């Protein structure tokens, strides 16, 4: 399997709604294995196919629950329903999240406390997961990627401006910039 470069904000695939998966074949299995390896090497708790330049509705996740159980899997062609998102300002300490497509940065974002994700796995078996807390946050974050939305696109002020300034300072926000987990240098 292969660790793949991760696209940085500005790549059009990150800002485009992903396409439904229609072919369940060996190529898809290799893609998902590459996604797991890339996520693990980054390291991350989730990775959506658009983040590695593949415009398909797939994400993988890896989360250790509070009870110590490992939650690891793939969801293909997901749907997502959530509880209401609170309207108050996000808390920097408890609600900051990061993104492998905005590497090294963290900003606070309000998310729904609970989420239900459905879809299928590699064998087209139904997937139905009810999540709360950070596990629900992971699903919301990865699902947003499939809708062409990065978490920095959803920030409220003053964090939205801080994110824009950081992206500009880093020279991101344009096509052709990526990074390869395991290496320090950004490509592009």
What is the average per-residue confidence, as pLDDT, rounded to a whole number?
Answer: 94
Secondary-structure element string: EHEEEHEEEEHHEE
Number of strands: 10
| Share of helix, binned | 10-25%
Number of helices: 4
Structural class: alpha+beta
Q: In angstroms, what is the radius of gyration?
A: 16 Å
The outline comes out as: globular
| Sheet with the most strands, sense and barrel status | 5 strands, antiparallel
Report the span from N to C terminus: 23 Å
Order of strands in the sheet with most strands:
2-3-4-7-8
Unreliable residue runs: none
In terms of DSSP E residues, the strand content is: 25-35%
Describe it for me?
The chain has 188 residues and is of the alpha+beta class. It is 24% helix and 29% strand. The chain is built from four helices and ten strands, in the order E-H-E-E-E-H-E-E-E-E-H-H-E-E. The strands form three sheets. Strands 2-3-4-7-8 form a five-stranded antiparallel beta sheet, sandwiched between helices. Strand 7 and strand 8 form a beta hairpin. It is globular, with a radius of gyration of 16 Å. The two termini are 23 Å apart. The relative contact order is 0.21.
């Amino acid at each position: 399997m292969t660790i793949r470069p991760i696209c940085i904000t500005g790549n059009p695939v990150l800002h485009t709604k992903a396409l439904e998966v229609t072919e369940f074949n060996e190529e898809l299995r290799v893609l998902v294995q590459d996604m797991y390896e890339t996520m693990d090497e980054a390291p991350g708790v989730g990775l959506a196919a658009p983040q590695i330049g593949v415009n398909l509705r797939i994400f993988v996740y890896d989360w250790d629950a509070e009870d110590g159980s490992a939650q690891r899997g793939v969801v293909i062609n997901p749907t997502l329903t959530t509880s209401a998102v609170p309207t108050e300002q996000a808390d920097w300490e408890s609600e900051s999240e990061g993104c492998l497509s905005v590497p090294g940065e963290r900003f606070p974002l309000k998310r729904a406390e609970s989420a239900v994700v459905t879809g299928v796995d590699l064998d087209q078996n139904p997937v139905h997961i009810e999540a709360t807390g950070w596990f629900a946050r992971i699903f919301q974050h990865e699902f947003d990627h499939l809708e062409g939305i990065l978490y920095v696109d959803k920030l409220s002020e003053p964090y939205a401006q801080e994110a824009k300034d950081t992206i500009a300072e880093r020279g991101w926000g344009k096509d052709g910039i990526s990074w390869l987990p395991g290496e320090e240098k950004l490509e592009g």
